[in-house]
Amino acid sequence: MGSTLKELSKSLGLSTSTVSRALSGREFKRGTTRAQAERIMAQATQLGYEPNGLARSLKTKRRQVVGLIIPDIKNDYYAAAATLVQTTLGEAGYQVILCVTNDDPEAEAAQRRLLREERVAGMVVVPSPHQRNGRVQENALRSSTPIIELVRRSRDSSTDAVLIDDVDAGWQGTRHLLDLGHRRIAVLTGPRSVSTSRLRLNGYCDALASAGIAVDESLIHAGPYRRDAALRATLTLLARDDRPTALIATSNELVVGALQAIMQSNVRVPDELSFVGFGNADWFTLLRPALTTVALPIENMAIVAAHQLLTRIRLADSPGVPTTKTPVVSRYQAHLIVRDSTRQLEMS
Amino acid sequence: MGSTLKELSKSLGLSTSTVSRALSGREFKRGTTRAQAERIMAQATQLGYEPNGLARSLKTKRRQVVGLIIPDIKNDYYAAAATLVQTTLGEAGYQVILCVTNDDPEAEAAQRRLLREERVAGMVVVPSPHQRNGRVQENALRSSTPIIELVRRSRDSSTDAVLIDDVDAGWQGTRHLLDLGHRRIAVLTGPRSVSTSRLRLNGYCDALASAGIAVDESLIHAGPYRRDAALRATLTLLARDDRPTALIATSNELVVGALQAIMQSNVRVPDELSFVGFGNADWFTLLRPALTTVALPIENMAIVAAHQLLTRIRLADSPGVPTTKTPVVSRYQAHLIVRDSTRQLEMS
DNA sequence: CTGAAAGCGCTTACAG
DNA sequence: CTGAAAGCGCTTACAG
Prior knowledge:
Two copies of one chain form a homodimer. Chain A is an alpha/beta fold. The first copy, chain A, has twelve helices and twelve strands.
């Protein structure tokens, strides 16, 4: 335990230089040096020597660690993202420091700073909602750590981003319900300070407009991404005299809350209410009725984000290249999966 | 970007010692030095100085980073564990490096080594299944990094462990079905090389024995913790002429696979088959029928494990204390939640 | 209170 | 091919 290069070298009667080189593995040209290298490695395992990664990174300025900042790991959606980011980066030899924000901007700022102090090679981040008076993080801006934003885009961001075509996603879910004859369509979204919420809501409004329907603000609930909030909002919605005939929940957590409320209210889906979810957790198909949903290609996106980060890291490492500061932003298409929770509205 | 203590000091006309001390914040006895300290800090933010955590840790030998090794982050059960470990350790000022093994012992060994090279202050690990010829990891043994095992216990382990009373958990689920009059009870477990699988199965066998029922090996499926395996096994079980009247799935992933098979087979629960799950994912109550399940206190356990790790870390830091090598092992009780997926067996 | 100096554990030109 | 030496960016006794 705790043996160092110096101790190892002394026990071998060699210099740290030689031992270091042998251990690095580019040292076996001749038969005689090859034997030497093997002797060194044997002694290393004998002493239980394990190099100090901190010292190495300090010296080489190369770091095989990246940060991942997400709002919530229990959420199936982000759990899927984390898995793929972790796996993809892991295959490239990187370790991942996981940070969970709970959508708290201050927590996120602290975590970003900590990751920078850890000198991570880069970060994948799902940004939290903005604060009211969003003073720009100066250090963050000046920092050269490559960052890829995933799913959500922070205001004034100048980094790469891998996003969903949120407007279209909102449109698709709404359009499906309109096509089934629904007119009073309620929607649950996150706070308007989050890009995805705003844009999905835009899609919803666009779809209504395209059908010549005026937006009824009372059918829109924009709250935090928490199931309890969604539960309460849905309960209220369902208790109205002029109850909507359809409901869209635009994120995983909102789906859970909405479904809980629907069960509590004993409202029958799809007979009394058509329901459209977002995302595509495994258990969606285990429900009866199975959920109609706007599926989001999160796993793909996570892989893309990881690769893009890798690219940025390599770019930042190669000295010659004048780091292109043009952010690369891509948007991936959602697609509707029609199952059993939506149906044609019966004319009454 | 990238400014160092030295640069900062030079720009202030001070020594690095003074600046370092001022930044560390124990430097404001007098009014005059207090002003000095503030001037230093102002300049630090001005230059966007952020200390290099690697250099600091190398020097101080203190590390505010721990490792977390789990089999699968998409699994609700481990996602819950990860969340609580992350949060608890985060509150104590630690960052968490997340490693996912997919139950591959070689991946786990590599990850442990990497974490040791990162000189993490400690680890929480859910061990993978053993390999056939389990050669002991010598370095791991010699290493002094504090480790807490969570949920599963590795063979010959000499570390602390926070576990479930698995025998009792298996007993409870089985006993419930026996009390309802079931005699042909099938069970899905993980590989026998995992402690939880073995012990839960023991509980199952004990319960059968207590009811004077001989164990029928053909009703036991011990496979990998993967839903596709569980799906196939369940399909086979349900296609038998002497189909069991009850089924227990002893982990989250096995529950998902079993339910998929049940739906495919059009077997009605609980009329034709009583079903007992394990764990308590949120969506269990969203199903119809809602799932009867053996709930496991994973969130509590994750918190306990995190605290226990913190304790071990502090112990390892205090030099005087002769590190007690007696492992502390605790087991937490599962508790049965009866919902609608189990019912009295009708005598025919 | 301040600064010069040593050292944490590595890697890597640079001579030999 | 090998070793002595410098240095990555900090912190912390040690004198002054």
